[in-house]
Amino acid sequence: MAFNPLVESVPPSGIRKFFDIAGSIANVISLGIGEPDFVTPYHIRSAVMDSLMDGETQYTANYGLIELRREIAGYLSSRFHVTYDPESEVLVTVGASEAIDMVMRGLLAPGDEVILPDPGYVSYQPCVIFAGGTPVAVPTSPENGFVITPEALESAITPRTKAVFLAYPCNPTGAVMPLEQMQKIAEIVTKHDLLLICDDIYIELVYDGFRQESFASLPGMKERTILINGFSKSFAMTGFRVGYICAPDKLLKNPAKIHQYAIMCASRASQVAAIQALKQGRQDNYHDIQVMRDSYDRRRRLMYNALTDMGLACYEPRGAFYLFPSIAGTGMDSDTFCERLLKEQAVVCIPGTAFGACGEGFIRCCYATDIDKMGEAFQRMRVFLSRD
Question: pTM of the entire structure?
Fold first, then answer.
């Protein structure tokens, strides 16, 4: 029996393999999962409980609760100076992951090319392929700050290029993109009349006084930009599965149509949680985000110092909650390094190849992890490295 060849051509996630192995090993410490270690703030959980006790368990509009769409539009206006009409330019989704899938399926025709930086998050290239498109990976490296350069972008554009997909701060490298470089990228995208798809899920998690701007806020870019974001990372709401797409109505209609038929609407309880997160955030200058960001920053510096002290060359990230150290000096490839580290020392890291071919020679370590557990993981890693 034949199955969809597009789906058959994509291998399983390179991350999942290591969690399957970890499940059979005692006393495992994970530096692998990209999830905040904070519990969702109490005021958010309390709002959901009140909503449920009030019997608010019904479907919402396909685009989401209008109150939430207004809050999202207000948040983007106040934080990033980009204005969206909550009636027609904001669509609430089941996490940013559904948003990425819907955008690709809604905008790509068979054979359309989408340019993506390599390394990049595991789902980007598969979502392009599932939509019938062709991912075009552009290499990035520590030497260019793991950021796609204007020159590399220009050289990758062909007559089949439909869109450029960017995500800064970046998973897995923690890279950010300075405003000057964003402006150069925007000029190229405009010159070639391309779409720009941006995953801004980590945009609030930046350090050292850096501010990651949104491409949609640059002059002339809102009309060709699809902005994707969500609540999982900034508000520690991974289990709520609520995100959103913001774009001009003409770019949002097809993704919204897929959402209507495939999903209907995001969970009402999750939307209530998101309303509370943004409403309370507006009132207290996003205190919840600040507390978590400060904690991540401390752990970022701790992990960076620990890894470099071990002799692992490491680009110093300024965003997200990952480090992407080089393990090339060990003589092992990324997959072998991570598998041996897990089996011999019960520490989970993710091989860089899970995020693209340019990830070979690197591993991803997440510092959204308890400090004591991180310390123990570092001790085990030192033992592991001393034996090789």
Answer: 0.95
